[in-house]
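Troubleshooting: if your tokenizer reports a length mismatch, compare your output against this known-good record of 432 residues.
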Amino acid sequence: MNPTPHVTVVGIGADGWAGLTPAARHALTTADVVLGGPRQLALLPPECAGERIAWPTPLRPAVPTLLQAHAGRRIAVLASGDPMFYGIGRTLTEALGAPPRILPHPSSVAYACARLGWPVEDAEVVTVVGRPLARVAAALHDGRRLIVLSAGADTPRDLAALLRDRGFGPSRMRVLEQLGSGEEREVAGTADGWDVPPGDPLNLVAVDCRRAPDALRLGAVPGLPDTAYEHDGQLTKRHIRAATLGALAPAPGELLWDIGGGSGSIAVEWMRTHPSCRAFTVERDAVRAERIARNADRLGVPGLRVVTGAAPAALAQLPTPDAVFIGGGLTATGLLAACWDALPVGGRLVANTVTLESEALLADWYRRHGGELVRLAVAHAVPVGTFTGWRQAMPVTQWAVVKEGPASPGPAALDSDPLDSVSLNTPSGDAT
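Known-good structure output:
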């Protein structure tokens, strides 16, 4: 952007002008232009004589245009609380290519923890401002403390319903409104008994998580109970799933392709490892694709992207993955080669199969590219008359490999066109 405008971002709380520092007041009174939300702009006194411009909707695409339109003028931007905590500061930094001058104000989370006596580092923050409420489900663990940043007055009611539905009805909820102002108010109750009418839209909800005694317990590591998923049998079972996620080794911010989604369990548990993990799951069956979306929503990762289509053709427009899991359709023409070609150096590929034909294919790729080829076998104790015996599940062959640099030999062209469709007779994945 040329010339770069002079931009100062001022954090402001519900206490308005009275709560600002002298430096923040000076930035606002000397600004030629003040950008902000209507509620924030209304908090300013007449001595802030600069042109006031309310953010349009949608905001993010409009930021570069507005900054360019006022280049060369002194610009002040109003932000709620701390501009770098789920605030406009990030968007402005990206638009400018460098951080603007930022004068933060205590965030609503800081106020809430001060009122509640909660150490900030012990509370997990989940925002539902412009994001699905279902994200909260991934953070629900007995005994944990959550602070949910509300999207409006209805969020506490909707959150109580979600907590009841996910087995956390006994959780204590405290709604804190207008934090930092003279109009602060707290309303408390449990999710099971929540009947409080909507109040002030400027609120957050503090939750002491308590799981109901009969609710399914979901841990924080891969290998959730199979009963946590809605499925039609196309489900990577929990022990194999845990081993598969261990081989995929998700790290914060990474992107997974889950090919042959089935019930979506691999992609769901990849995303549950960290809020910044992302995933695309590719499933050709429309009914299963809808089921994957429901599983993702229920288990707290509504951001999972479900692509309904046949691989490898459905992979053509997807962003570059950090890791690829193939749970079905391995023998489809071009699939394995297309996934390998899409991976950057250092990317991981993990493929599971239960058939001899796909096993032979994996053995050949293992011979040429290395990695680790293992057979995973699980047996369950079951009644045998009045005694107990072992029932063996089908063994799963798994190939896991990290793609090496240009010095390593490239993949042989086992298949023809990498964009050919998967045969409709090829079983879909997530079935091991």
